[in-house]
Amino acid sequence: MRLRLSDLAWRNLVHDRVRLGVTLTGIVFAVVLIVVQLGLFLGFTTATSGVIDHSGADLWITATRVPYIEQGVPFSERKLSTVLSTPGVASATKYIVRFTQCQRPDGRQESVQVVGFDPDRPLGGPWNVTEGNPADLKAADNIFIDEIYKAKLGVTHIGQIVEIRGHRARIVGFTTGIRSFTVSPYVFTSFKNAQDYTTVPENQTIFILVKAAPGVSITDLRQRLLSELRDVDVRTNAEFSRMTQIYWMFTTGAGIAVLLAALLGLVVGVVVVAQTIYATTMDHLREYGTLKAMGATNGYLYRVIIQQAVISAVIGYGLAMVVSHFVVAGSQRGGAAILLPTPVAVGMLGLTMAMCVGAAMVSINTVTRLDPAMVFKG
Amino acid sequence: MRRAIEVRDLTKIYAQGEAAMRALDEVDLDVHRGELMLLMGPSGSGKTTLLSIMGCILQATSGSVRIHGQEIVGLPQKALPKLRLDHIGFIFQGFNLFPTLTAAQNVGLALDLKGITGGAGRTRAADLLEQVGLGGKLHAYPADLSGGQKQRIAIARALAGDPSIVLADEPTAALDSTSGHTVMALMQELAHQRDRAVVIVTHDNRMLGYADRIVHIEDGRIHQETNGTEVVTNQPALQGAYV
Hints:
The structure holds two protein chains of two kinds. Chain A is 51% helix and 19% strand. Chain A is α+β, with helices and mostly antiparallel strands. In chain A, the strands form two sheets. A six-stranded mixed β-barrel of chain A has the order 3-4-9-6-8-7. In chain A, strands 2-10 form a two-stranded antiparallel sheet. In chain A, a hairpin with a 2-residue loop joins strand 7 (161-164) and strand 8 (167-175). In chain A, helix 2 (17-48) packs across helix 11 (298-331) and helix 9 packs across helix 12 (342-368). By secondary structure, chain B is an alpha/beta fold. In chain B, 31% of the residues lie in helices and 26% in strands. Chain B contains seven helices and ten strands. In chain B, a hairpin with a 2-residue loop joins strand 9 and strand 10. In chain B, helix 3 (103-113) runs parallel beside helix 5 (147-158). Chain B starts with a strand and ends in a 10-residue tail after the last helix.
């Protein structure tokens, strides 16, 4: 029988179940919209730099002023010997990432991104391999693709043949979850094949990937390489990854659009929750006035209203996470992954709370100005 | 009798300039513990304004109001809730109960404001409802109760903070005759048996017999003060004055 403030808040909420339903629907809609948009943003961002992030390299050597990975410009592969002779370098390899055309078995053309690496070195190869052996890429004409793009490239199993820029390419393996932001599937192959599949001249490379020897400072090694090499830039893996992400997500405006949609979700959530909590407060205005007349401070009434908001937030968040779970799981089968890492899920709880409590401010303002003398007016 | 409320030269003016309206005009009044006083008068006479100022809800324009000797005119707005909580219980015409709470929880809410929670709060709420004859309705919701029962919950709630002053605004206006008399008997008991100062604004002539004193207000001034017994003795002639 003891009444706690949360009881009052809860009872105020459930008193009108239709309104509570509208509130929760609004919160769920807003949270799912935000989760989807933020998840898409994270998924896109991860996709833009996936090849860099999984390369295993510490440093990327590029032609000067290359702003992101897809914009690589060929330079002389003779620089590789200079790199390999630089103290502190454990391993270095030539690397190609370049758009080209692929002809499916049925003759249709598709754009792909060829990733050419040295299968004898542990840098820049495919990851998340589900079928096949990456060592098979040492043989001529062999390629790996991601299973997400099987349908796009018109293949179903290992051994099928496609044509890349007029050259035969045999599928010898599949990966999973290696998405391309540009919708052109990555095709992993040997560096030699990649030169045939693209227009990179034989004595040139697009990048050189560098692995530092254990214990060597990446910053110091970068400086050493910069002093040894001419007409190139040397980027750390993280730096080049960030440059690529920023280019695709912000310079192109793609990320801004996604973030704006997330912001829209937040606005929708605030408006819906504010409207319903305000309506609930207005319903109980006389009772709040009575509490004030009885000696309740504004702080006491704020706590009731804020607890209503927090209860709505927790329930709405819980429901939204269930819906989001299915949306995220469903997206894994598509070309655009929606990511919901645990820190984002936890952060969404905070954001939902902030959204609902922020929305309650309109009601709090009303209660603050409430004149307790109103209780005597009829 | 000990004075609970002392009102001197009390003036309340609403708005300013040409629109100014003098709701109370140099009112002098004492309310004593153990006394049930009726404030009567036509609509707009100033009785609710007087009740609101004595209840520390509305601030006076000038004059003096002392609650148990403490001057409240000129006190900062922030200080008033504590005064109300410590000294005053309110009863309203429309009951003003939380429809989402049971009878016991409505009373418990007032106890919560006083910091009486847990087992002590439970016992006290049950005790208060028992005192107003609703010991069997602890878990009933206002919607399931009659007007008279609702008003008795409101009385129990008003008493939750053990106030020395009870102010009521038309407590019987929404009640039938039987319920009205039950409520007034309770109010009289509060004054006489429990030594509270009870002030009731009412238009209800049926309740005159419960009053120790009747104060008639007109145009913001005290027009007439009558002994309750005198009114009852001289019915119906005097009663006509309060219609």
